[in-house]
């Protein structure tokens, strides 16, 4: 009897292990289809969701990786030729697409408070601000993020993990997805956040010039520098408007500035940065000592930092030092990705904070929500780990030219518009450098009517703040409506 029980136990163990192995296998192609509805601006919007995987192929047609995606289609729209399609990426590099998926444009959003702080129980609620009323959306997880994985272990990692290789294989994947879903006639948009802006800026050029897929719009959410040169005086001076915004938020400025609205302060600081600070910093050591002191005094006025600290850093205070210094006397730090968030370090001394209080707050809300959502709402069952941040290093950052590539795509395509969305309290990809991107992409001023900027009183993920979630989605909604040409409107200059 004991032998029989032991044999049965071993069989059950073997079955369990075999089942676990099967469930952990990466399937090149899979899908789970569900239906739902969401109310947006008082209107019922029914939709179909396809959550699944689709391969990346090599030149010989061999599957070398598979990408997880979630595709939302409005089901009460019959004419797909006129229905816009939005392809959404997050950044990192190495970040899954869950951030904008579960907090910004999708039909569900995180369970958080109005300022973006996590609430328990973790989970999701319907998103009344989703853009699904005006466009279908597909959220894509690049290789090794989310549930996306490499299939062929002999394929060099450089095939996926680098600025230009990332752009190349993802553009090919999007082309295949659009073909499979029969969406070539649809107006098409790319949206990327953070490093995702580097990705979609390059993809706009790659899709247009290698796959002959012309876009109507690219949306850059909290954009990177896009490979545009900004060394020397520019790199040090351009953070001043961000410092002013953050210091104003934490009431660290003098009463005359604190009594003004942020919209009054920022144009003043931006003008000072362009007209006074950049030329002064360009002089370097030749700057007159008295002028240097006057500038340090003005910078202290705009930042709440001491003149001594500013002079010690030769007018160029590093962001890492600012996050530690601004509220040091209160024993607090401020966040990098959203400087509204406050943290505490083990000691008040030091040159930089111990951790980013914004990012750590977000991580423990997004992870359980995505795992719950995939299993219970999307009905996508897997034992794979959803990688919020996946192993994608080393990442080849050489030969980046994405800002110029996006500009070139715009020059070639009269339909193509670009909108930038930035949070004033984002210290990772600050709003003034985002404006600087637009100026450098169009140095002759020929495309200013197709370059659009929107700013918000929040940080890197501006949509985590309830007020900005509504406003920023409405800005996307209007951008899509305004950049979808009417019948018979030709693409010509």
Structure, explained:
- This is Carboxypeptidase.
- Keywords: Carboxypeptidase, Glycoprotein, Hydrolase, Protease, Signal.
- One of its GO terms (molecular function) is serine-type carboxypeptidase activity.
- InterPro entries: Peptidase_S10 (IPR001563).
- This protein has 15 helices and 14 strands.
- By secondary structure, it is of the alpha/beta class.
- The strands form three sheets. Strands 1, 2, 3, 4, 7, 8, 9, 10, 13 and 14 form a ten-stranded mixed sheet that branches. A two-stranded antiparallel sheet has the order 5-6. A two-stranded antiparallel ribbon has the order 11-12.
- Strand 11 and strand 12 form a beta hairpin.
- Helix 4 packs across helix 13.
> What is the fourth-level CATH superfamily of the largest domain?
Alpha/Beta hydrolase fold, catalytic domain
- Counting H and I runs of at least 4 residues, what is the number of helices? 15
Principal-axis shape: globular
| Major sheet characteristics | 10 strands, mixed
Signal peptide: 1-20
GO biological process, one term: proteolysis
Protein name: Carboxypeptidase
Pfam families: Peptidase_S10 (PF00450)
Keywords:
single chain; 17% strand; 493 residues; Rossmann fold; alpha/beta; 10-stranded mixed β-sheet; two-stranded antiparallel ribbon; 15 helices; 38% helix
Short description:
By secondary structure, the protein is of the alpha/beta class. Helices cover 38% and strands 17% of the residues. It folds into 2 domains: 24-228 and 364-483, 3-Layer(aba) Sandwich (Rossmann fold); 240-316, no CATH class.
